[in-house]
Write a structure and sequence with these properties.
By secondary structure, the protein is of the alpha+beta class. Helices cover 38% and strands 18% of the residues. It has one domain.
Length: 143
């Protein structure tokens, strides 16, 4: 993904991308987001949904501070790697809960329907190096 486009996500969701400045021996996020620009909207939506979920959890906990309760077992999400593999998006992370895992799995599945280059409707090819592209981008890749 283009560095300027990645930076938009890093700036808007710094807590999710805290690992981007770590040594590559510690986190693969140091290599950046390793997929095409066409999946930017998918990743931006995913980040928004995770951030909103975490805000909701924080608001619930703040609302219930007057009554004693068990401390939260929720740990904020931190991406450890985002890349393309076998034509689909792969996202690795620490923290979160079942809701976060479900939203991430949905984004990964959606990536098989979206062109990795332009974001239009696409599909993975059947042979060779598997990549998810639209007919337009697949045609320009062949020439």
């Amino acid at each position: 993904m283009d560095e300027e486009i990645q930076q938009k996500l890093y700036d808007k969701y710094p807590a999710l991308f805290v690992n981007k400045d770590k040594d590559p021996r510690v986190s693969c996020m140091a290599w950046g987001i390793e997929c095409g620009d066409g999946w930017y909207d998918l990743l931006a939506t995913l980040c928004y949904r995770i951030a909103q979920h975490e805000k909701n959890i924080a608001a619930r906990e703040k609302k219930h501070t007057s009554t004693p309760q068990e401390p939260s077992k929720y740990y904020p999400v931190q991406f450890t790697q985002i890349k393309e593999k076998f034509g689909g998006l792969r996202i690795y992370w620490d923290g979160g809960d079942e809701h976060v895992a479900g939203v991430i799995r949905m984004a990964e599945e959606m990536s098989y329907k979206l062109c990795e280059r332009c974001g239009n409707k696409g599909q993975p090819n059947k042979q060779g190096w598997v990549v998810t592209l639209c007919d337009n981008c697949r045609g320009s890749a062949d020439s």
